[in-house]
Design a protein that fits this description.
With about 170 residues, the chain is an alpha+beta fold. The chain has helices at about 60, 65, 70-80, 100-105, 150, 160-165, and strands at about 1-5, 10-15, 20-30, 40-50, 55, 115-120, 125-130, 140-150. The protein has a 5-stranded antiparallel β-sheet with strand order 1-2-3-4-5, covered by helices on one side. The chain has a 3-stranded antiparallel β-sheet with strand order 6-7-8. Strand 1 and strand 2 (about 10-15) form a beta hairpin.
Length: about 170
Amino acid sequence: MKPLGEGSFGQVVLARQDDRVISVRYRLDIRSAQFGNHGGYDLRLVSVDLRSGRPLHAADVFAAAATAPSGAAELEERIVDQPPGGYCPASVLNPTSSLTPDELRMPYTVGGYPVMQTGYSADAVEFLVFTPAFGYEMACGYRTFTVPYAQVTELMTEDAAAALAPGPQPTR
């Protein structure tokens, strides 16, 4: 973590950088009583298709999940399988809310990010989920679920699958 000023820290982690995609994870921590006993923090995943220059947002990559409840349910099934137990297995609240298209599109967090964000490594999708939006305790906070491309590629748009597919790309 790099100090950003008194009580503030930032961290940048490069998840993927190749000729097709760059994917970065940002974390900002603010140690201030204004944000409660433990301060405040926010996470942001930013990914860009370097061929088109466009961001790779969850709602664009998983368009069916961002537009239809059935698509969101299918995506959620693959995410919470990694590991089993829902979004926060230690929760005593046992919420019953499920992923809806809004969680991939609508601003929700302190930083104005959706409930579910995506980042991309060479071989998997990283789903960053703000679990309190589903009714879990604040202590559950953000949770990361890593799902291999092989398990979610069929749920991606054709363009996203081509940009994110592991391994070398055919020459054009």
